[in-house]
Write a structure and sequence with these properties.
By secondary structure, the chain is α+β, with helices and mostly antiparallel strands. It has 2 domains: 99 residues, Alpha-Beta Plaits; 79 residues, PucR C-terminal helix-turn-helix domain (Arc Repressor Mutant, subunit A, Orthogonal Bundle), CATH 1.10.10. Helix content is 55%, strand content 15%. The longest helix has 22 residues.
Length: 186
């Protein structure tokens, strides 16, 4: 499971590479230019935790402005929100979305082709702590139906629901989408 992070910085790429190699060893991929980089951490949440723990101190050592935005997947539209991250900090997309709700409006197309039953199932699954059994009780459907719909959602969007930050982002995205659909119909 990978972690995806946009890094916006005024620091030279060579300095970033040295920093990430020092913090993460060789378990990362850095790609980008012109001050915005895509950082992929194949170590997943472990690598992400290491980075988050030392991010502020590392930024001070670099001596420049650095911002990190942890996203569920690399989409160029998410780069537009990196300016909302405080200088020398790293935040999850859902945290930034709490401050600027337009993130959810702008990302509606990620789920617009998914049927409402699947969206309601994914929302219930997240509310049930990613438990297909509890979600099935709530929805009055078989556990396998929940599993099938969640797996199909993951396959269609490419977003893994296991990491808590991804699940929170998707939860609010679906919630926003369903509310808008109800307003259109009602």
């Amino acid at each position: 499971m990978n972690s995806y992070i946009y890094i916006s910085t005024s620091v030279e790429q060579e300095k970033l590479i040295k920093l990430f190699t020092k913090l993460l060893g060789n378990s990362y991929e850095l790609d980008g230019k012109n001050g915005v980089y895509k950082l992929t951490l194949p170590a997943g949440q472990k690598g992400q935790a290491l980075l988050q723990t030392s991010f502020r101190a590392a930024c001070e050592d670099l001596g420049g402005e650095v911002r990190g935005l942890i996203v569920p997947m690399f989409l160029d539209r998410f780069i537009n929100y990196i300016h909302l991250v405080k200088e020398n900090t790293i935040q999850y997309l859902f945290e930034v979305g709490y401050e600027d709700h337009s993130i959810y409006t702008d990302a509606q197309d990620l789920i617009s082709d998914i049927d409402v039953y699947t969206l309601q199932t994914v929302k219930a699954y997240i509310e049930a702590g990613n438990s297909p059994s509890l979600a099935s009780l709530r929805l009055y459907v078989h556990r396998n139906t929940v599993t099938y719909r969640v797996d199909r959602f993951i396959q269609q969007t490419g977003i893994d629901l296991k990491p808590f930050p991804n699940a929170v982002f998707i939860y609010f995205l679906i919630d926003d989408y369903i509310k808008k659909e109800e307003n259109i119909e009602g």
